[in-house]
Amino acid sequence: xxxxxxxxxxxxxxxxxxxxxxxxxxxxxxxxxxxxxxxxxxxxxxxxxxxxxxxxxxxxxxxxxxxxxxxxxxxxxxxxxxxxxxxxxxxxxxxxxxxxxxxxxxxxxxxxxxxxxxxxxxxxxxxxxxxxxxxxxxxxxxxxxxxxxxxxxxxxxxxxxxxxxxxxxxxxxxxxxxxxxxxxxxxxxxxxxxxxxxxxxxxxxxxxxxxxxxxxxxxxxxxxxxxxxxxxxxxxxxxxxxxxxxxxxxxxxxxxxxxxxxxxxxxxxxxxxxxxxxxxxxxxxxxxxxxxxxxxxxxxxxxxxxxxxxxxxxxxxxxxxxxxxxxxxxxxxxxxxxxxxxxxxxxxxxxxxxxxxxxxxxxxxxxxxxxxxxxxxxxxxxxxxxxxxxxxxxxxxxxxxxxxxxxxxxxxxxxxxxxxxxxxxxxxxxxxxxxxxxxxxxxxxxxxxxxxxxxxxxxxxxxxxxxx
Length: 468
Hints:
It is built from 22 helices and four strands.
């Protein structure tokens, strides 16, 4: 330990731990991978620059919302400050960066922020539940001896590994199960029909929406590449040319039919806690590696001994990220809701002549919104596999009720046609009841779904009688 001495008084104010680099690597598991270190460093620079700007915009929007709505429903607004009576709201204040606190003191006359209670977790998020922390808190509160640190660490790491397994099982169910994708597509088609969208119009617009989305994403990728090139080589001969290219790309993006919806955040991430960009084996391996740096080193050494052709074949069989099949399936899952929202938006604006804002709200209300966080308890139950896909199950109930309220005859005819004539899955299969609720209580083979030899199990894709 090295003492930290105050330059003003000469007193020792704190101590700093130091150790040799090899000790950090062998004991603490420090890994100085250049690509990851540089990537994190660059990301943190962007974050430090943009976060205060974005935080200021959020605070101003919350103040506008408060001014416009507080008189109509004052009981819904809660105080976020260091003087709040609510422990959660007080903790939120303490965790806010200093710049955000200064914004609050500048924007709100009394230096305290007031926000509608149902927006608190949407804006600020929440701390995930930890059984280990809860148990230790209960033991300390009742004056019992807390868990030994080795026991606490073991519980936390094992919980982390199990959550990785559950998350991988969800990924395999949502992305690699044809029935799930087909059910989602057919349910979206039924909702569009009940909103008055003709089948031919829906099919044509959905096809165009996929094309628009691919073009939009490709343009964003090209713009990002040009930005990185100019940042890395500010003195290169192509700097001005790249700026002109980026300006043209910006104009193309603004002219895209889906630009308004993308800017409104309609293009959501993968459904139900599925994280894109990383395959299940890596998630579980990363969690297991957290047990010990030695384990991680042994795993890496073993992986390096495997010939590249074997790795490639394994990636293809398990549909790992980077393979064409994984990209197709991931995009199909991610696009399914988005293209349906685009279709309804285009129909409301082009055919019905509604405003963009009204059409946007209709498109958001008609399909499940996965971006809104759930409660801490429900999130923990989903993370641990005690409940499964509850965002869809609970939020689809409001959509079903709204559908029957707005167009009861059309809804009954649509459900009847799918259930009795075509025998295809639809949203009516998710109507709340004992049977449908029990299907979301973790009644799945989590271990089997997490460790399935993916591609070999997909041969049933080509036999339609196994799709349903």
